[in-house]
Every structure is written in C-alpha cells, then in structure tokens.
Amino acid sequence: MSHRRAVAPAERRSLGRPTWLPLLASHTFLILYCALALFPIVLMIINSFKDQLSIFSAPFALPNAETFTLDGYKTLFEGSNFGGYVINSLTVTVASLALILITGSMAAFAIAEYRFRLSPLVALYLSLGIMVPIRLGTIGILSLAVNLHLVNTLWALIFVYTAQGLPLAVFVLTAFMRQLPKDLKEAARLDGASEYRIYALTLPLIRPAVGAVMAISLIPVWNDLWFPLILAPGEGTKTIVLGASVFLGQYVNDYSAVLAALTLAILPAVVLYVLFSRQLISGLTEGAIK
Amino acid sequence: MKRRFPTHIVVFLLPAVAIYTLFMIYPLLTSLWMSLNNKSAADSPVFVGLANYVRLFTAPEFAGPLWNAVKNNVIFFLVHMVLQNPIGLLLAALLTRKLAGTAVYRAIIFTPTILSVVIIGFLWKLILNPSWGIAPGLLRAIHLEGLYQPWLGLESTSLVTLALISVWQNIGIPMMLFTAALLRVPTELFEAARMDGAGAWTIFWRIQFPLILPTVGIVAVLTFVGNFNTFDLVYATQGALAGPNFASDILGTFFYRTFFGYQLQPGDPFMGSAVAGVMLLIILVGVLIFGLWQRRLQDVQY
Question: Which ipTM did the prediction report?
C-alpha cells in the first residue's frame, strides 16, 4: 500500500518534472542566487545591532551579549528627525496612491464604459506617460511648483507622483473594466441609477486590479530620491530616502549609526512588501504587460 | 434620439486629465520650450531656436561631458542587457518548472528590487569599501584575495561596478515579467515535444523562447528607458560629480549638474532643458525602434 503510493508521484515526476540531476543543479543555483540577493541585507541588519569594534573585527558574527548595542539607533534618533521623515514618506505615498486610484479609476471607467468620439484620443493622450519619464520635465515642474508656491510642501510631491502613476494605472484599470459583465450595469440603469452610482457599483468589482495598481505604483513613489531632492529638500518635508541620504553623508564614519539608518530606512518597505507581496507579484505578472 | 451633453463623462475624466496635464505634459512642454530659449539682457528669456543644442554638441565645456555621459550610459545599458535580462530569464525559466519552493525563491530574489536605490547604493559602497573589509574578507575565504581592488573608486571599474549593483537590485523585474510570459505558454505546446524525447534545452529554445519574444522586447525597452533615466544610484554612491573624474557620469547626473550647477559652475536652466531634450529624443528613438520591431514581429506571426 505505502509502496504503491510512493511509486505514483515518482512516475509523474519522470514525465512532468526534471530528473534528479538537473533538479539538484537548479536548486543549487537558486539557493546560491538567493544567498547573493540576501547577504548584503542580512549583513547590514546584524551589524546594526553591534558595537563599532565588532562591526570591524567580526562582521559576519551575530550580535551576542558582549557586542550587542543599540547605540547606532540612539545616534540616529538624536542626530536626525527620522520619525518625521517616515511620517512624510507615509503621507506622500498614501495620498499619491489614493489620488492615483480615485482619479485613475474614474478616467478608466469613462474610457471603458462610454463610446464617445474623443475616447481613443484621451486614452492615447493618457498613455503617453507610460514611456516618457516624468523626470525629463523636472525644470518645468520646478518652475510650476515655484509659481504655485508648492516648493517645500508635500503637495508638490503628491501631485507629481500622481501624474507619474496615472498613465499606467488608467491603462491597467481600463483593460480590467472592459472585461466586467454588462448585465449588472444595465440592470442598475433600468432601475434609474445615475452614472455616478454605477461607477460606485463597479468599484468593488475591480479590487484585484486595484491591488495590482497599488503595488506597481507604490515602490517608485516610496523609494524616489530625485523629486524630494529638488522639490522638497526642506527639513520639515524630507522623505525617508532623502533624510537617510543626508544622514549617511554626515555620519559616514559612525558605522553603527549608518547601518542603523540603512536598516530603519528599509524597514517600512520590507513590511509593505510582506503585506502586499501577493498583489505585487500578481500585479507585475498580470497587470504590467497586458 | 436626442442626446444630452455628457456632463458625467467630463466629470469622470477631468481630475485625471487635469493633474496629468498640469504636472506632467505641461512641464515637459515648458522644458522643451525653455531649451529653445536663453537669457537675454532684459529679464525675459529670448527665443534662440536650436542654439542651445548646437552649443551642447559643439562647445567644449558641454560636448565633452555630454558624449562621456552618453558613452557611459550605453555601457551601463549594455551591462544590463548582457547580464540582467538573460539571468532574469534563466531564473524565470527555472522558477516556472515544477520545482519545490518557487514562491519562496521568487520572493527572496525580488527583495532587493523593492528597496530604495539610495540604501542599496550606500550598502554596497560599505561592502566594497576596503576599510570595512567585507569584500576582501569574502575573497580571502575562497583564496582569491589578490583580485580585490577598490572597484568603486577606480576610474576603470567604477561604472561597471555601479551597473552590476543595479543589475543585482533590478533583476527581479525581468524575472517577474518573464515568469508571467512563460506561465502563459500553454503546456500542451511542449508536452508533445517532451513525449517525443526533446530535452528541456531544446524545448526552451525551440518552443518557449519564440513564444515569449514580445516580452523579451518589452523587457528590453523598459531596461532602455529606465537606464537612460537613471540618477539615484550614481548620485547616492558617487555624488553629483559622478566620480572618480566623471568616470561614472551618466545622462541623469549630467542633467542634474547642468541644471543646478556644481562647484564653481553656475546652474543653467536653459542648457539643462536642452540636456533633457536630448534625453527625451534618445528615449523616444528607443521606444520607436521597439514599436517598429514589435509590428514586424506581429506581421511575421500572422
């Protein structure tokens, strides 16, 4: 009985799966590659909890009772406004994502739902930004921000990131909305629902695409250095990436402080990744190339 | 049937179109317009046609750095095309076979991609720095310590080292896109070939690869646009001067310096706009070539 059960999967393996030698080679290669991907990050985290001396004398050792210290983190919080930077980054990221999703889904609804003469033109106009990097308009953006008194405000970043994220968001959401069944919307129209009501009704149906758009838009916004550096370099509006880069420049020789800053700066991204990795991966694999 | 003016369509489109136009299209057009102007004796700028571009390509203080940046950017892009995309494809090919633990492998390999370039750049700078000694230490462990050099600090190696760091970080993107494309190839297509005794290698190159060719093109064009627009990594590790001695200067850092100035040279928004104009042209040409190639590919297939 148990013998037969063991044979069946083995037979299937010989058809669908590689045999053991390529299998071993594949796993070895993947494990080595994963080690290469993780070792700098692990090295950074473990050393951020050690004292200066052991960071240099035994960089690969885990912190122990003798070498463990939080001095790096202490220097970090005394020497800079890290909490404030995190709040700025969160504000900018959440507000931009919300604006991208609200305005993007409205535009996508209009393009997918109604047949009007300008519809293909509007879709083309909005999709220009998928390939043209918004950075090339930086000089125009800076003078616009000066004229609108947005320099050194988080609003400048929020609007720029919204404009940056909208093209792909509209593209992905339109493709998704076109696939929605028409019956529900027609039934609602017969009941006398307004077009705005119908838009609100479709929102719960596009949840998978919303997850994908959020995941795709989030990383470039959170990690950007260029626009914070140019539009909002003031102390009160620094994002975590800009704040970390300034701190790193000042504390270059204090390794425990530098490693603590690096560790804390990636922490929110890692938490978001763990929370959203499913949407992110499905978003990248399905949304991005449709 | 009488039709009302479709107010609701305007309401739906207006917020997105307004934000996008005001913060993306209008600034791009202003930049392009500025690149055709220059300072005048009076306060208002004066239209000079293509004079800024002529100056950019002929004046020694601009032409030298510009061509250096273009050349470096091409090398930066080639390193990605030669390493990042083929290795990404290999990882995707391995991860779409029925291996155990693919989800874990995929998540780990993608981790560097989600991290900030600034953090990644600085971290690698520490690791490669002789004073911490991680890189020489690792080489000593495999008895190759003679190979160690301060790669980021040498003119001959800093650009390629930066490109390798960028490959290390961004490999997750081609891996994901290739994975998606490979998963969409119907298994029946190569199950028959496998029955006939074709090996994995043959099946990959004869059946799977031709079918994912459009994705290969998309990955190439995304790499191209991303690379010719890179700034953060070089700025974070080498500063705006893209040292040593401009050896790692690429178009993004050249644009930044031209616009904001550096050391004794004052910034110049008009010349900066011209650099952005050149970058836009390079990117558009790349995208156009991709578009034409994709059209030819479709003609061949149908």
Answer: 0.86
